[in-house]
Amino acid sequence: MSSVNTPTRSLPVTGEQPPPEARGRHRPGLRGRLADSASPSPGLVAVVIVVTWLAVLAESTLVPVNPALHRVALFVHLACLVVGFGAVVAVDWFALKWLLRRCQLRQVLAVADQVHLLIWLGLAGLAASGGLLRPDLGATLTQIKLLLVLLVALNGVQATALHRRIAAYTGPVPRSLLARSVLAALVSQGGWWGAMAIGFLSSHPA
Question: What is the distance, to the nearest Å, from the Cα of residue 120 to the centroid of all Cα atoms in its chain?
Fold first, then answer.
């Protein structure tokens, strides 16, 4: 999954320079504090993701699939790929524009907020429909693809937490936080593209 793709140079979130005593401080507002308190912990979400991933593996071996259901699952799989990965690309595109000084960081954060649900829905749909496609769990490429899907999901949890921390700053974001955000974005892109490439190779064997 994608994080807020940001450069290593610290820039204020808004166009105005904050006073010296407020620069770099982590000051979430009331809305941010309420959102944090209402959100489950990243550790709990990670556990749910791993359990769901194992359930999908079980689904792929236990649920009988007829040709008609296979075609439906393939259509859903491709549709969820468009939705999920398309949302990831949208966030990274705006992040690249910010990197080139063509938009503000708050615009990147706003886009990430808007498409966050689409990314998770796309990833969930990919996992559920992928299990119905009866993947060959004994194949090395399939195993790598499944691990990449798990990596993307777990990375998405980290990216979401980083996004909330970045959005909470009233001044320039620390470089260490920006570097972690860039790393999460690279992991997301690598995972998505890797899984798609393996899926293509698996469906078009040499």
Answer: 7
